[in-house]
Amino acid sequence: MTDEAGPWLVVGLGNPGREYAGNRHNVGFMVADLLAARVGARFGRHKRAVAEVAEGRLGFGGPKLVLAKPLTYMNLSGGPVAALSQFYKVPPARVIAVHDELDIGFGQVRVKCGGGEGGHNGLRSMSKSLGTKDYVRVRFGVGRPPGRQDPADYVLSDFSTAERKELDFLVDRAADVVESVILKGVEPTQNLYHGA
């Protein structure tokens, strides 16, 4: 594989700070951390964007990866993403957002390109700052809140004890999906993972 088309920007969406680390809303950070570990990269503060960034290659001589965790809060994620996209010259079609998704049941990971934001403030901010909705989304299902719990409170709460037993496996799967999008494309990835 070569990276003649340039790098990929993989953005894990979440909120900075230890108090948010285990929240459902921070699953994007968890996937970004795992991808960094896989490529042997470490996160460090970027000089031009309010984000932590790790750079590496997917496999020997494979495509260059720029992994990012915006350090703004979720609803302002777009600014750092747009700054990184300009800095690394990454077009929106090669930007992948990894985020929690209320409309998908826990245990499912889905991928799509473009479309609506489903009320997700991080995606809304990204679409506005990038000037397009045509970027890839890796959607990590967290399901709907139980009873009458407010969705905002639900995503800002930690995974349940039962969910935590499966979480490492699912974060691993989401990282596999990101790698598959980069190496194979969106449609082949959908065919591979959406049936499971």
UniProtKB/TrEMBL annotation:
Pfam families: Pept_tRNA_hydro. GO terms for cellular component: cytoplasm. This is Peptidyl-tRNA hydrolase. Monomer. Gene3D superfamilies: Peptidyl-tRNA hydrolase. The record marks 15 as: Discriminates between blocked and unblocked aminoacyl-tRNA. One of its GO terms (biological process) is protein quality control for misfolded or incompletely synthesized proteins. Its main location: cytoplasm. It catalyses: an N-acyl-L-alpha-aminoacyl-tRNA + H2O = an N-acyl-L-amino acid + a tRNA + H(+). The active site is at residue 25. PROSITE patterns: PEPT_TRNA_HYDROL_1 (PS01195), PEPT_TRNA_HYDROL_2 (PS01196). It comes from Micromonospora orduensis. TRNA binds at residues 20, 73, 75, 121. Its EC number is 3.1.1.29. HAMAP family: Pept_tRNA_hydro_bact. The keyword Ligase does not apply. Catalyzes the release of premature peptidyl moieties from peptidyl-tRNA molecules trapped in stalled 50S ribosomal subunits, and thus maintains levels of free tRNAs and 50S ribosomes. Keywords: Cytoplasm, Hydrolase, RNA-binding, tRNA-binding. Belongs to the PTH family. GO terms for molecular function: peptidyl-tRNA hydrolase activity; tRNA binding. CDD domains: PTH. PANTHER family: PEPTIDYL-TRNA HYDROLASE (PTHR17224). It is found in: Cytoplasm. The record marks 100 as: Stabilizes the basic form of H active site to accept a proton.
